[in-house]
Each structure stands twice: as C-alpha cells, then as structure tokens.
Amino acid sequence: MIIGVPKEIKNNENRVALTPAGTQELVKNGHTVFVQSMAGAGSGFSDEQYTLAGAQIINNAAEVFAKAEMIIKVKEPIEQEYKLIRKDQLIFTYFHFASYEPLTNAMVESGATCLAYETVERSDRSLPLLIPMSEVAGRMSIQEGAKYLEKPLKGRGILLGGVPGVKPAKVLVLGGGVVGTNAAKIAAGMGADVTIMDINLDRLRYLDDVMPKNVHTMISNDYNVRELVKDHDLIIGGVLIPGAKAPKLITRDMLKTMRPGTVLVDVAVDQGGCIETCKPTTHEDPTFIIDDVVHYCVANMPGAVPYTSTLALTNATLPYAVRLANKGWKKACSESAELRNGLNVVNGDIVYKAVADAFNLPYTDVKKYL
Question: What is the superkingdom listed in this entry's lineage (predicted)?
C-alpha cells in the first residue's frame, strides 16, 4: 500500500502521525511511505531520519495526498485539505465529526473512507487510540490551569498547592475517565484539594481506593455540580461519550455563581465541549473571559508537547496502521471489531450512528461495505 504522511497545518500543531521507527516498520512490511518535508520537525524528527528509515520525502502536501492510498494524520483535515482528499482514499486520523458539521459534510462529499482514532473501541469499551492523548491532555489540564490561576493571567491569584499556613486551591474534575483520572492525579501531586465527579458509582469506588487522601469523590448530577462550582478555583471538564457531542455539565448561568478568576479547562472541546460557554481556542490565543471566569479551551492541547505526544500516540496507532496497510481497510475491519468501530464515513455514507444523530443525517449500517 502507498501511505502518505502530510505535515499538520492546524494552528500550533507540532505532532506528526508517523515516526521514523513507524516508517521503518511499514517499509519492512513491503509498503511505500511518502512523508511531506518537515512533517516531523516539530516533534524532533528530521527528513534525514525518515529517509534512513525508508521513506520518500515529498515537498508539498498536494503531492502526498495525490500519491497515497492511505493518509495517516494526527488532527482532522482542515478546509484547505478538503479538496485534496479523494474518493476511495483511506484517511486514518482524529476526526471528532460530531463537533463540526462542515467537516462531516466535506468528508461525505469526498467519497473517502474515514477511520477515526477516537472511535476505535475494544470490547471492554476502552478507546485505545484516544487513551494516550487523553492521558496527555488530562495531565496538561492541571499544568495549564495552574498557570492561568496566576493574577497576571486574570486568574484568582492562588497557588495550586498552597503553602504552610495557607490552604491549597480547590480543583473540581468532571469525569472519572482517563482525562479526569490523570488530571486528579497531577492536581493531587501538586498538593491541591481535589474533587472528582462521575455518574458511575463503581468507578468512584475504584478512584476512592487508588487516589491519595487529598482526592475526594462525589456523584455527578446537576445539583452537586451547581453547588461545587461556587467555591472551586480550577474546574476541569473531562467527560466523553464516544463519537458523540459531550453533554453540557456547566451551563451559562453557573458562571455568575463562580468567584472572579475561576479557571475552566474544557478538555472535551474536541467533542463540542462540556461547558456551555466553551468555544475552541488555539495555543496562540488560548483563553477568553466571560463573567470574570477564565476559559481555556484549546482543541489540540497535546500539540504543545509534541515530542511526548507523538511518541505516545504512535505507540498506539502503529499496530493498527500496519494491519490496515497489510490487509486493506475492508478485510482489516471485517476481521477486527475494534477497527470496524473506527469507521465513521464510507463512500459518502455516515456509518457511525452518533455522528449521523448529531446532525440529523441519514445513517447507513457499516455492514453494507464489509
């Protein structure tokens, strides 16, 4: 198979979808790999490293897309890439379709096969290609939140861990999944007073057992969320419904009950956000303020730490990429329920129900193509 790796062009996106090590693995399996020049530079990988691993370097994205049967990316295609994607081409990347209808429509019109990292799902409901970036984003949410609590950045002016004689900051984490667990772990390690909320009592029991003593658990419902936001300094939104829009747990009216300088970090922004006032921001301009509450809603948080993120992501995606290249997407998805769950759009049809439901569009059973 001919595989193309274009350079990511989303604002401040420095990750790359394939490392030189991954390139070598695909070449070893008999595949041709085209990598756009400087695609790996932001993550610390040179064109020379890719060449030594067996890749062919191409100077422009249009040629990479034109030559490749499978495109491997990190982030969803953006508008200037739409026209480069063609019928029957396989695109393997994060899509987060349910949060952006123009992307969904563009991929439907392209006739391409869109296999989304975020909906590749195992029988135990875990999301193996979302987990590594959720781990990074969860940990980063505290790092960024602690920074924006500083007064010069319009925060409350409170140190996350406090000091002897002064109470630490209070951190509220919405969602006890991968993002929330990693956020709570880092916040607790920095000495904050942490509360983590979830709707699953079994999950809360588990977290109560494994988390340090400065992490408390509470059942998530509208009443409890409304009460806790009033006196927490940093609030992390980390809820997820695979492939679907995130539920709005913090509504516009709750902002007026928060203290000035409270910081909200919405890690769920890729899926539409779990904070009603959330709108996607970039690393270049990461925050905005509504009702004296600081909103940090960067849609590609792990892109700020590309070396760590690229290695973490490609450790997870490479085995699936090799399987797709070796067998072709139809056979690979027929044999693997995990990969089959990743199919979102095929030949102009939406084959993932949550995406169709998000925009009231027709849904087609993926079995039509397998």
Answer: Bacteria
